[in-house]
Amino acid sequence: MIKVGDTLPHTTLMEYSEVEGEGCSIGPNAVDVAKATAGKTIALFALPGAFTPTCSAKHVPGYVEKFEQFKAAGVDEIWCVSVNDAFVMGAWARDQHTNGKVRMLADGSADFAKATGLTLDLTARGMGLRSDRYSMLVKDGKVVNLNAEAPGKFEVSDAETLLAQAKA
């Protein structure tokens, strides 16, 4: 499992973007994790799935609401990573009003989740391999803080906890 001091895995995530208004989509676009994190401070949080109850009601909204505070604390970008395809993440971004605040990044084949060792096997529930719920502060591609949740919990990966770490 990835730990504090480790470099994020050299994988590619996907991002779906839209043009302003109700225009055609731009993407999905590949996001090279190593290149996208180089020289930046990233507040990254991951969760089991888009449109799921805790993720939609608590996890994403907390980061959207605290966007300005994260910026003031020196965070360049906030990333939400989930084992969904880019089109689902794009639809969820619209639903959660994340535009310009939280980058909704798809880990469609769970490559990032597997490479970090932070996976959740929900095969028995018909959902396949997913990401664990966690947050991490990443500086120049290296993990500075890691907050992995216990199964079924939402106690340490919230925006408040990671924001406090970013301010420290």
From TrEMBL:
Enzyme's top EC category: oxidoreductase
Q: Name one GO biological process term.
A: hydrogen peroxide catabolic process
Show the InterPro entries listed in the entry.
Answer: PRX5-like, Redoxin, Thioredoxin-like_sf, Thioredoxin_domain
The Enzyme Commission number assigned here is 1.11.1.27
Q: Where is the Thioredoxin domain?
A: 2-168
Q: Does the keyword Oxidoreductase apply?
A: yes
The protein's annotated catalytic reaction(s) are:
a hydroperoxide + 2 glutathione = an alcohol + glutathione disulfide + H2O
Specify the superkingdom: Bacteria
A GO MF term: thioredoxin peroxidase activity
Q: Where is the active site?
A: C55
Please provide, in alphabetical order, the Gene Ontology terms of the cellular component aspect for this entry.
Answer: cytoplasm
Asked if Ribonucleoprotein is a keyword of the record, the answer is: no
Q: Which UniProt keywords apply?
A: Antioxidant, Oxidoreductase, Peroxidase, Redox-active center
Which family is it part of?
Belongs to the peroxiredoxin family. Prx5 subfamily.
Q: What task does this protein carry out?
A: Thiol-specific peroxidase that catalyzes the reduction of hydrogen peroxide and organic hydroperoxides to water and alcohols, respectively. Plays a role in cell protection against oxidative stress by detoxifying peroxides.
Record's protein name? Glutathione-dependent peroxiredoxin
Organism (species): Limnohabitans curvus
